[in-house]
Amino acid sequence: MALQDQFIRRWRLLRALESGESWSYEELLALLSEESAEGDGQAWSLRTLQRDISHLMKAGFPLERVRTGRKIRYRLLREFVNSVPEPFLPSQWASLYYALCMLRDLPSSPLKEESFNESISGVLSRLRRYIPAALRAYAEGVEPRYAGVVGALREHGRQRKVGSALLEAIAKGKPARILAARAGEIRKRWWKIDPYLLHFEGGNYHLLARESEKNALGVWHLEGIESVRITAGAFQMPLGLDLKALLAECLREAMNNGLNVRVRFGKDVALHAVVAFMKEAFGEAEHLKKSSRSSRDIMVRVSDIWGFRRWLMSFGQEAELMAPAELRDAFAQDLEAALKKYRKGRRGRKAANPA
User: pLDDT by residue (tens digit) across 209-218?
Assistant: First the structure.
């Protein structure tokens, strides 16, 4: 089952259990089904719910069992809820702590500037003292387990390196070469650019630069930039440019030139949640219900092709890219390359342990 569904479902359970009310298994299942009603009407099994509750307990959330007649009901231990400083609930404190950590570490974040860094570090230090250890550990564990669900940038290490190199080139007025897929393109290639701006817009980081070959402005998603090489020389940025307005214009043009991608999801994927995430992260998305009542297909218009491919891979066999054919072939090549590594490792183990 996709990690995206797990995160959304478990976060809903946490919010219910911290409310002060006690819940039976039947009531929790009804709650999840009710919140899914606007989408595909996903009905979760009792076994899935039991795994979710076990996960929250292992993560450090102390659930207490309250017996009412013959039934067992659950709620978050009141002492734990009361130990979290007002006016927030545990899930809200976890969200705040996680968001501050993410903003501090993102490429080109203003919170990385020296004038802000001490303030943010001080806030985080105080939060660590006030928040129970289990809650802090849960907030810190959200990113590696559920990357992409709450708008986080994936592959932080590589993207921080790429973002830092671009920021250095921009600050020094240096041209650069980037190995990248331009917005709306499937294949990566080398570009000679004069980088103007790296900015967070519409849920992702984007690079605005002058492309040397055509002497025209272009935009690249940070997800699609594989490598950066700062080159010799210098460039002079034209005066009077409204860079953020130009970036927004280039992004609108890139979206118009984006690809219509059709994806078929497995029965265990909550389609309404996936559609909502696609709209936020990539562009226009629609559940194709007209062709068949049982249709599991979603159409989405994508300009950030590279980021979309990485995100879709997280679903494993629960998602199949149906169209366009060229993108499907590229996706298949990624999977074949990964499979080749696993097969190579398997042969090595057989050689080391002959029958």
Answer: 999 888 888 8
